[in-house]
Amino acid sequence: MQNLSNGATSNGSYLDRTFHLSEQNTTVGRELLAGLTTFVSMAYILFVNPIILGAAGMDKGAVFTATALSAIIGCLLMAFLANYPIAIAPGLGDNAFFTFSVVLGMGIPWEKAMAGVFVASVLFTILSFLKVREIVIDAIPKDLKLAMAAGIGIFIAFVGMQGGGLIVADKSSLVAIGSFTVPTTWLTIFGIFVIAILMAKKVPGSIFIGLVATAVLGLATGLIKAPSSIISLAPSLKPTFGVGVEHLPSIADPQMWAVVLIFLLVAFFDTAGTLIGLAQQAGIMKNNKMPRIGRALMADSISMLAGSVMGTTPTAAYVESSAGIAVGGRTGLTSLTTGILFAFSMLFSPLLTVVTDQVTAPALIVVGVLMVSALSEIHWNQFEIALPAFLTVIGMPLTYNISYGIAFGFLTYPILMTVAGRRKEVNYIMWIMLFVFVLLLYVLNVIPKS
Protein backbone atom coordinates (compact mmCIF):
# COMPACT_ATOMS: atom_id res chain seq x y z
CA MET A 1 0.00 0.00 0.00
CA GLN A 2 1.28 3.41 -0.96
CA ASN A 3 1.52 6.00 1.74
CA LEU A 4 0.16 9.52 1.45
CA SER A 5 3.52 11.06 0.63
CA ASN A 6 3.79 8.93 -2.50
CA GLY A 7 0.61 10.34 -3.92
CA ALA A 8 -2.26 8.15 -2.74
CA THR A 9 -3.41 5.58 -0.24
CA SER A 10 -5.28 2.38 -1.03
CA ASN A 11 -8.47 4.36 -0.41
CA GLY A 12 -7.17 7.08 -2.68
CA SER A 13 -6.29 4.84 -5.65
CA TYR A 14 -9.49 5.88 -7.45
CA LEU A 15 -8.56 9.53 -6.92
CA ASP A 16 -5.05 8.80 -8.16
CA ARG A 17 -6.38 7.22 -11.35
CA THR A 18 -8.97 9.94 -11.91
CA PHE A 19 -6.80 12.97 -11.26
CA HIS A 20 -3.33 11.53 -12.04
CA LEU A 21 -1.97 12.58 -8.66
CA SER A 22 1.23 10.57 -8.94
CA GLU A 23 2.01 12.00 -12.38
CA GLN A 24 1.70 15.51 -10.95
CA ASN A 25 3.82 14.57 -7.92
CA THR A 26 1.08 15.54 -5.46
CA THR A 27 -0.95 13.82 -2.74
CA VAL A 28 -4.58 13.55 -1.71
CA GLY A 29 -3.90 15.49 1.48
CA ARG A 30 -2.10 18.26 -0.35
CA GLU A 31 -4.92 18.59 -2.90
CA LEU A 32 -7.58 18.73 -0.17
CA LEU A 33 -5.66 21.46 1.64
CA ALA A 34 -5.26 23.37 -1.62
CA GLY A 35 -9.00 23.13 -2.28
CA LEU A 36 -9.80 24.44 1.19
CA THR A 37 -7.31 27.28 0.75
CA THR A 38 -8.82 28.26 -2.60
CA PHE A 39 -12.35 28.19 -1.18
CA VAL A 40 -11.47 30.34 1.81
CA SER A 41 -9.73 32.79 -0.52
CA MET A 42 -12.71 33.22 -2.86
CA ALA A 43 -15.70 32.54 -0.59
CA TYR A 44 -16.32 36.29 -0.40
CA ILE A 45 -18.07 36.07 -3.80
CA LEU A 46 -21.00 34.35 -2.07
CA PHE A 47 -21.71 37.60 -0.27
CA VAL A 48 -20.31 40.18 -2.70
CA ASN A 49 -22.20 38.92 -5.76
CA PRO A 50 -25.68 39.27 -4.17
CA ILE A 51 -24.79 42.78 -3.00
CA ILE A 52 -23.67 43.91 -6.47
CA LEU A 53 -26.51 42.24 -8.39
CA GLY A 54 -28.93 43.33 -5.68
CA ALA A 55 -28.12 46.91 -6.65
CA ALA A 56 -29.54 46.04 -10.07
CA GLY A 57 -32.83 45.04 -8.45
CA MET A 58 -32.29 41.28 -8.28
CA ASP A 59 -33.34 39.18 -5.28
CA LYS A 60 -30.23 38.78 -3.09
CA GLY A 61 -31.23 35.43 -1.66
CA ALA A 62 -31.81 33.89 -5.07
CA VAL A 63 -28.52 35.33 -6.32
CA PHE A 64 -26.74 33.78 -3.31
CA THR A 65 -28.05 30.35 -4.27
CA ALA A 66 -27.34 30.86 -7.97
CA THR A 67 -23.80 31.97 -7.11
CA ALA A 68 -23.13 28.86 -5.06
CA LEU A 69 -24.67 26.48 -7.61
CA SER A 70 -22.83 27.98 -10.58
CA ALA A 71 -19.57 27.79 -8.62
CA ILE A 72 -20.26 24.13 -7.79
CA ILE A 73 -20.98 23.31 -11.43
CA GLY A 74 -17.92 25.23 -12.66
CA CYS A 75 -15.54 23.64 -10.17
CA LEU A 76 -16.82 20.12 -10.86
CA LEU A 77 -16.54 20.60 -14.62
CA MET A 78 -13.02 22.00 -14.27
CA ALA A 79 -12.11 19.02 -12.09
CA PHE A 80 -13.42 16.25 -14.31
CA LEU A 81 -13.15 17.79 -17.79
CA ALA A 82 -9.78 19.56 -17.58
CA ASN A 83 -8.24 18.20 -14.34
CA TYR A 84 -6.94 21.63 -13.34
CA PRO A 85 -6.65 23.11 -9.80
CA ILE A 86 -8.59 26.16 -10.93
CA ALA A 87 -11.90 27.21 -9.39
CA ILE A 88 -14.76 28.83 -11.27
CA ALA A 89 -17.46 31.17 -9.93
CA PRO A 90 -19.32 34.32 -11.05
CA GLY A 91 -16.69 36.95 -11.89
CA LEU A 92 -16.44 40.23 -10.05
CA GLY A 93 -15.76 42.23 -13.21
CA ASP A 94 -18.76 40.78 -15.00
CA ASN A 95 -21.25 41.39 -12.18
CA ALA A 96 -20.02 44.97 -11.79
CA PHE A 97 -20.43 45.53 -15.52
CA PHE A 98 -23.93 43.99 -15.46
CA THR A 99 -25.13 46.24 -12.66
CA PHE A 100 -23.31 49.52 -13.16
CA SER A 101 -22.88 49.63 -16.94
CA VAL A 102 -25.82 47.70 -18.37
CA VAL A 103 -28.66 48.04 -15.83
CA LEU A 104 -27.89 51.37 -14.16
CA GLY A 105 -25.79 52.93 -16.95
CA MET A 106 -27.81 51.91 -20.03
CA GLY A 107 -31.15 51.78 -18.19
CA ILE A 108 -31.88 48.18 -19.22
CA PRO A 109 -34.12 46.21 -16.81
CA TRP A 110 -32.22 43.38 -15.14
CA GLU A 111 -34.59 40.80 -16.62
CA LYS A 112 -33.72 41.92 -20.14
CA ALA A 113 -30.05 42.20 -19.27
CA MET A 114 -30.09 38.62 -17.95
CA ALA A 115 -31.66 37.55 -21.24
CA GLY A 116 -28.66 39.09 -22.96
CA VAL A 117 -26.38 37.11 -20.66
CA PHE A 118 -28.28 33.91 -21.53
CA VAL A 119 -27.96 34.49 -25.29
CA ALA A 120 -24.28 35.34 -24.86
CA SER A 121 -23.83 32.14 -22.84
CA VAL A 122 -25.41 30.01 -25.57
CA LEU A 123 -23.22 31.59 -28.23
CA PHE A 124 -20.26 31.34 -25.89
CA THR A 125 -20.75 27.60 -25.47
CA ILE A 126 -21.08 27.08 -29.21
CA LEU A 127 -17.95 29.14 -29.91
CA SER A 128 -16.04 27.18 -27.27
CA PHE A 129 -17.17 23.88 -28.80
CA LEU A 130 -16.05 25.05 -32.27
CA LYS A 131 -12.72 26.28 -30.80
CA VAL A 132 -13.36 29.78 -32.17
CA ARG A 133 -12.71 31.10 -28.68
CA GLU A 134 -9.22 29.66 -28.66
CA ILE A 135 -8.45 31.23 -32.05
CA VAL A 136 -9.61 34.69 -30.99
CA ILE A 137 -7.80 34.48 -27.66
CA ASP A 138 -4.56 33.63 -29.43
CA ALA A 139 -5.01 36.68 -31.67
CA ILE A 140 -5.35 39.22 -28.83
CA PRO A 141 -1.94 40.71 -27.97
CA LYS A 142 -0.74 39.99 -24.47
CA ASP A 143 -0.38 43.68 -23.61
CA LEU A 144 -4.09 44.35 -24.21
CA LYS A 145 -5.09 41.30 -22.19
CA LEU A 146 -3.02 42.61 -19.30
CA ALA A 147 -4.47 46.11 -19.71
CA MET A 148 -8.01 44.76 -19.62
CA ALA A 149 -7.35 42.87 -16.39
CA ALA A 150 -5.80 45.95 -14.79
CA GLY A 151 -8.59 48.24 -15.98
CA ILE A 152 -11.29 45.99 -14.55
CA GLY A 153 -9.27 45.91 -11.31
CA ILE A 154 -9.25 49.70 -11.04
CA PHE A 155 -12.95 49.83 -11.88
CA ILE A 156 -13.77 47.26 -9.20
CA ALA A 157 -11.68 49.18 -6.65
CA PHE A 158 -13.47 52.40 -7.63
CA VAL A 159 -16.84 50.72 -7.03
CA GLY A 160 -15.57 49.47 -3.66
CA MET A 161 -14.36 52.89 -2.56
CA GLN A 162 -17.68 54.37 -3.58
CA GLY A 163 -19.73 51.73 -1.76
CA GLY A 164 -17.52 52.02 1.32
CA GLY A 165 -17.99 55.79 1.53
CA LEU A 166 -14.34 56.64 0.86
CA ILE A 167 -15.25 58.65 -2.23
CA VAL A 168 -18.47 60.49 -3.04
CA ALA A 169 -19.97 62.38 -5.97
CA ASP A 170 -19.08 66.06 -6.29
CA LYS A 171 -20.65 68.64 -8.64
CA SER A 172 -17.45 70.62 -9.18
CA SER A 173 -14.85 67.85 -9.42
CA LEU A 174 -17.06 64.82 -10.24
CA VAL A 175 -15.62 62.88 -7.28
CA ALA A 176 -14.30 63.86 -3.86
CA ILE A 177 -13.15 62.20 -0.65
CA GLY A 178 -15.91 60.93 1.62
CA SER A 179 -16.67 62.13 5.13
CA PHE A 180 -14.82 60.43 7.96
CA THR A 181 -17.51 61.53 10.39
CA VAL A 182 -19.73 58.73 9.01
CA PRO A 183 -19.25 55.73 11.34
CA THR A 184 -19.80 53.09 8.67
CA THR A 185 -16.95 54.49 6.58
CA TRP A 186 -14.58 53.38 9.33
CA LEU A 187 -15.78 49.82 8.85
CA THR A 188 -14.39 50.00 5.32
CA ILE A 189 -11.10 51.46 6.54
CA PHE A 190 -10.83 48.77 9.21
CA GLY A 191 -11.49 46.03 6.66
CA ILE A 192 -8.86 47.37 4.26
CA PHE A 193 -6.19 47.37 6.95
CA VAL A 194 -7.12 43.89 8.21
CA ILE A 195 -6.95 42.39 4.72
CA ALA A 196 -3.81 44.35 3.81
CA ILE A 197 -1.96 43.18 6.94
CA LEU A 198 -3.02 39.57 6.40
CA MET A 199 -2.07 39.74 2.72
CA ALA A 200 1.34 41.18 3.62
CA LYS A 201 1.86 38.29 6.04
CA LYS A 202 0.74 35.87 3.28
CA VAL A 203 -2.10 34.41 5.34
CA PRO A 204 -4.34 32.13 3.21
CA GLY A 205 -7.90 33.41 2.90
CA SER A 206 -6.93 36.97 3.83
CA ILE A 207 -9.85 38.53 1.93
CA PHE A 208 -12.45 36.22 3.47
CA ILE A 209 -11.01 36.65 6.98
CA GLY A 210 -11.03 40.44 6.55
CA LEU A 211 -14.63 40.34 5.36
CA VAL A 212 -15.65 38.31 8.42
CA ALA A 213 -13.67 40.57 10.80
CA THR A 214 -15.32 43.69 9.36
CA ALA A 215 -18.79 42.17 9.72
CA VAL A 216 -18.06 41.13 13.31
CA LEU A 217 -16.90 44.67 14.17
CA GLY A 218 -20.05 46.08 12.60
CA LEU A 219 -22.21 43.72 14.68
CA ALA A 220 -20.28 44.47 17.87
CA THR A 221 -20.61 48.24 17.42
CA GLY A 222 -24.25 48.12 16.35
CA LEU A 223 -23.48 49.55 12.92
CA ILE A 224 -24.80 46.32 11.37
CA LYS A 225 -28.05 44.70 12.47
CA ALA A 226 -27.65 41.09 13.66
CA PRO A 227 -29.36 38.37 11.58
CA SER A 228 -32.28 36.43 13.01
CA SER A 229 -30.42 33.14 12.41
CA ILE A 230 -27.13 31.80 11.05
CA ILE A 231 -28.00 28.48 9.44
CA SER A 232 -30.97 27.76 7.18
CA LEU A 233 -31.85 26.11 3.92
CA ALA A 234 -30.64 27.93 0.83
CA PRO A 235 -32.99 30.66 -0.45
CA SER A 236 -35.28 29.78 -3.35
CA LEU A 237 -34.08 30.34 -6.92
CA LYS A 238 -37.62 31.20 -8.02
CA PRO A 239 -37.15 35.01 -8.25
CA THR A 240 -34.32 34.63 -10.79
CA PHE A 241 -34.52 31.11 -12.23
CA GLY A 242 -35.28 31.11 -15.96
CA VAL A 243 -35.96 34.85 -16.04
CA GLY A 244 -33.38 35.38 -18.78
CA VAL A 245 -35.02 32.69 -20.92
CA GLU A 246 -38.53 34.05 -20.32
CA HIS A 247 -37.61 37.64 -21.22
CA LEU A 248 -35.79 37.03 -24.48
CA PRO A 249 -36.32 40.25 -26.47
CA SER A 250 -36.82 40.52 -30.20
CA ILE A 251 -33.88 39.40 -32.33
CA ALA A 252 -34.10 42.81 -34.01
CA ASP A 253 -33.54 44.64 -30.71
CA PRO A 254 -30.17 46.45 -31.10
CA GLN A 255 -29.92 47.13 -27.37
CA MET A 256 -30.10 43.40 -26.60
CA TRP A 257 -27.41 42.56 -29.13
CA ALA A 258 -25.20 45.27 -27.68
CA VAL A 259 -25.44 43.55 -24.29
CA VAL A 260 -24.82 40.13 -25.87
CA LEU A 261 -21.77 41.39 -27.75
CA ILE A 262 -20.31 43.09 -24.69
CA PHE A 263 -20.68 40.01 -22.48
CA LEU A 264 -19.25 37.83 -25.22
CA LEU A 265 -16.18 40.07 -25.47
CA VAL A 266 -15.68 40.42 -21.73
CA ALA A 267 -16.11 36.69 -21.14
CA PHE A 268 -13.79 35.93 -24.03
CA PHE A 269 -10.87 37.65 -22.38
CA ASP A 270 -11.69 37.25 -18.69
CA THR A 271 -10.99 33.58 -18.15
CA ALA A 272 -8.29 33.17 -20.78
CA GLY A 273 -5.75 35.45 -19.14
CA THR A 274 -6.40 33.99 -15.70
CA LEU A 275 -6.09 30.42 -16.99
CA ILE A 276 -2.74 31.10 -18.62
CA GLY A 277 -1.36 32.88 -15.56
CA LEU A 278 -2.44 30.13 -13.17
CA ALA A 279 -1.15 27.42 -15.51
CA GLN A 280 2.25 29.10 -15.52
CA GLN A 281 2.24 29.26 -11.72
CA ALA A 282 1.36 25.57 -11.47
CA GLY A 283 3.99 24.56 -14.02
CA ILE A 284 1.34 23.19 -16.36
CA MET A 285 2.39 25.17 -19.45
CA LYS A 286 4.20 23.19 -22.15
CA ASN A 287 5.95 24.93 -25.06
CA ASN A 288 4.20 28.16 -24.11
CA LYS A 289 0.82 26.48 -24.55
CA MET A 290 -1.71 25.23 -22.03
CA PRO A 291 -2.68 21.57 -22.46
CA ARG A 292 -6.42 20.86 -22.41
CA ILE A 293 -7.25 24.57 -22.61
CA GLY A 294 -10.22 23.68 -24.81
CA ARG A 295 -11.69 21.54 -22.02
CA ALA A 296 -11.04 24.29 -19.47
CA LEU A 297 -12.79 26.84 -21.67
CA MET A 298 -15.70 24.42 -22.15
CA ALA A 299 -16.03 24.03 -18.37
CA ASP A 300 -16.16 27.81 -18.08
CA SER A 301 -18.75 28.22 -20.85
CA ILE A 302 -21.10 25.48 -19.59
CA SER A 303 -21.03 26.92 -16.05
CA MET A 304 -21.72 30.37 -17.53
CA LEU A 305 -24.75 28.95 -19.37
CA ALA A 306 -26.04 27.25 -16.22
CA GLY A 307 -25.51 30.42 -14.19
CA SER A 308 -27.45 32.55 -16.68
CA VAL A 309 -30.44 30.21 -16.38
CA MET A 310 -30.31 30.24 -12.57
CA GLY A 311 -29.87 34.00 -12.36
CA THR A 312 -26.27 35.15 -12.10
CA THR A 313 -23.74 36.86 -14.30
CA PRO A 314 -20.96 35.08 -16.26
CA THR A 315 -18.58 32.80 -14.43
CA ALA A 316 -14.80 33.03 -14.70
CA ALA A 317 -11.64 31.29 -13.56
CA TYR A 318 -10.62 32.80 -10.22
CA VAL A 319 -7.20 34.33 -9.67
CA GLU A 320 -7.59 33.32 -6.00
CA SER A 321 -6.93 29.78 -7.21
CA SER A 322 -3.30 30.86 -7.03
CA ALA A 323 -3.57 30.53 -3.23
CA GLY A 324 -4.42 26.84 -3.55
CA ILE A 325 -1.73 26.31 -6.18
CA ALA A 326 0.77 27.98 -3.87
CA VAL A 327 0.18 25.31 -1.20
CA GLY A 328 0.61 22.49 -3.71
CA GLY A 329 -2.63 22.08 -5.66
CA ARG A 330 -1.88 20.59 -9.07
CA THR A 331 -4.96 18.63 -10.20
CA GLY A 332 -8.72 18.71 -10.48
CA LEU A 333 -9.02 17.25 -6.97
CA THR A 334 -8.28 20.76 -5.73
CA SER A 335 -11.18 22.30 -7.68
CA LEU A 336 -13.43 19.36 -6.73
CA THR A 337 -12.76 20.06 -3.05
CA THR A 338 -13.55 23.75 -3.59
CA GLY A 339 -16.84 22.84 -5.27
CA ILE A 340 -17.88 20.56 -2.40
CA LEU A 341 -17.17 23.34 0.10
CA PHE A 342 -19.36 25.71 -1.93
CA ALA A 343 -22.14 23.14 -1.53
CA PHE A 344 -21.79 23.23 2.27
CA SER A 345 -21.76 27.03 2.21
CA MET A 346 -25.34 27.16 0.95
CA LEU A 347 -26.53 26.59 4.53
CA PHE A 348 -25.33 30.05 5.63
CA SER A 349 -27.49 32.40 3.56
CA PRO A 350 -28.84 34.35 6.62
CA LEU A 351 -25.38 35.91 6.95
CA LEU A 352 -26.20 37.93 3.82
CA THR A 353 -27.89 40.58 5.97
CA VAL A 354 -24.65 41.41 7.77
CA VAL A 355 -22.60 41.72 4.58
CA THR A 356 -23.24 45.39 3.80
CA ASP A 357 -21.52 47.61 1.23
CA GLN A 358 -18.97 48.64 3.86
CA VAL A 359 -18.12 44.99 4.54
CA THR A 360 -17.64 44.05 0.89
CA ALA A 361 -15.85 47.27 -0.11
CA PRO A 362 -12.44 46.21 1.28
CA ALA A 363 -12.65 42.93 -0.67
CA LEU A 364 -13.40 44.80 -3.89
CA ILE A 365 -10.53 47.21 -3.32
CA VAL A 366 -7.99 44.47 -2.55
CA VAL A 367 -9.11 42.32 -5.51
CA GLY A 368 -8.57 45.44 -7.60
CA VAL A 369 -5.00 45.62 -6.30
CA LEU A 370 -4.40 42.00 -7.31
CA MET A 371 -5.72 42.61 -10.82
CA VAL A 372 -3.75 45.83 -11.33
CA SER A 373 -0.50 43.93 -10.85
CA ALA A 374 -0.83 43.05 -14.55
CA LEU A 375 0.38 46.57 -15.37
CA SER A 376 3.97 45.61 -14.58
CA GLU A 377 4.16 43.31 -17.60
CA ILE A 378 2.98 45.81 -20.23
CA HIS A 379 5.61 47.20 -22.63
CA TRP A 380 5.26 50.86 -21.66
CA ASN A 381 8.46 51.82 -23.51
CA GLN A 382 6.71 51.19 -26.86
CA PHE A 383 4.22 54.00 -27.44
CA GLU A 384 2.21 52.09 -30.04
CA ILE A 385 1.46 49.61 -27.26
CA ALA A 386 1.46 52.00 -24.32
CA LEU A 387 -1.34 54.26 -25.56
CA PRO A 388 -3.91 51.53 -26.34
CA ALA A 389 -3.06 49.86 -23.02
CA PHE A 390 -3.37 53.14 -21.12
CA LEU A 391 -6.69 54.02 -22.79
CA THR A 392 -8.02 50.56 -21.94
CA VAL A 393 -7.00 50.85 -18.30
CA ILE A 394 -8.08 54.43 -17.68
CA GLY A 395 -11.20 54.26 -19.85
CA MET A 396 -13.01 51.78 -17.63
CA PRO A 397 -13.16 53.74 -14.36
CA LEU A 398 -13.41 57.18 -15.99
CA THR A 399 -16.37 56.26 -18.19
CA TYR A 400 -17.76 53.97 -15.48
CA ASN A 401 -18.11 51.42 -18.24
CA ILE A 402 -15.88 48.40 -18.83
CA SER A 403 -16.88 48.00 -22.46
CA TYR A 404 -15.79 51.52 -23.38
CA GLY A 405 -12.35 50.95 -21.93
CA ILE A 406 -11.97 47.76 -23.97
CA ALA A 407 -13.19 49.60 -27.06
CA PHE A 408 -10.59 52.37 -26.65
CA GLY A 409 -7.79 49.83 -26.73
CA PHE A 410 -9.09 47.80 -29.65
CA LEU A 411 -9.81 50.92 -31.71
CA THR A 412 -6.29 52.32 -31.36
CA TYR A 413 -4.01 49.26 -31.25
CA PRO A 414 -4.22 48.11 -34.91
CA ILE A 415 -3.88 51.67 -36.22
CA LEU A 416 -0.87 52.63 -34.10
CA MET A 417 0.90 49.32 -34.72
CA THR A 418 0.46 49.86 -38.48
CA VAL A 419 1.75 53.43 -38.32
CA ALA A 420 4.75 52.24 -36.31
CA GLY A 421 5.66 49.83 -39.12
CA ARG A 422 4.53 46.75 -37.22
CA ARG A 423 1.49 45.86 -39.33
CA LYS A 424 2.62 42.27 -39.73
CA GLU A 425 2.38 41.81 -35.95
CA VAL A 426 -1.33 42.66 -35.99
CA ASN A 427 -3.53 39.62 -36.48
CA TYR A 428 -6.38 40.12 -38.98
CA ILE A 429 -8.79 39.27 -36.17
CA MET A 430 -7.75 42.51 -34.45
CA TRP A 431 -8.98 44.45 -37.50
CA ILE A 432 -12.26 42.57 -37.35
CA MET A 433 -12.52 43.47 -33.67
CA LEU A 434 -11.90 47.13 -34.52
CA PHE A 435 -14.96 47.20 -36.77
CA VAL A 436 -16.96 45.21 -34.22
CA PHE A 437 -16.30 47.88 -31.60
CA VAL A 438 -17.12 50.69 -34.02
CA LEU A 439 -20.46 48.96 -34.56
CA LEU A 440 -20.86 48.52 -30.82
CA LEU A 441 -20.29 52.21 -30.11
CA TYR A 442 -22.71 53.08 -32.89
CA VAL A 443 -25.38 50.84 -31.35
CA LEU A 444 -24.77 52.40 -27.93
CA ASN A 445 -25.29 55.88 -29.45
CA VAL A 446 -21.74 56.99 -28.68
CA ILE A 447 -21.03 57.58 -32.38
CA PRO A 448 -23.57 59.92 -34.04
CA LYS A 449 -25.92 58.17 -36.48
CA SER A 450 -26.23 61.15 -38.78
From TrEMBL:
TM ranges: 32-56, 68-93, 113-132, 144-168, 174-200, 207-234, 254-276, 297-319, 331-352, 359-378, 398-416, 428-447
One GO CC term on file: plasma membrane
Pfam (any one): Xan_ur_permease
Origin organism lineage: Bacteria, Bacillati, Bacillota, Bacilli, Lactobacillales
Top-level division of the source organism's lineage: Bacteria
Species for this entry: Secundilactobacillus similis DSM 23365 = JCM 2765
UniProt keywords, alphabetically: Cell membrane, Membrane, Transmembrane, Transmembrane helix, Transport
Full protein name: Guanine hypoxanthine permease PbuG
Topology within the bilayer: Multi-pass membrane protein
MF term (GO), any: purine nucleobase transmembrane transporter activity
Family from the record: Belongs to the nucleobase:cation symporter-2 (NCS2) (TC 2.A.40) family. Azg-like subfamily.
Locations listed in the record: Cell membrane
N-terminal signal peptide: none
Classification via InterPro entries: Azg-like, Azg-like_bact_archaea, NCS2
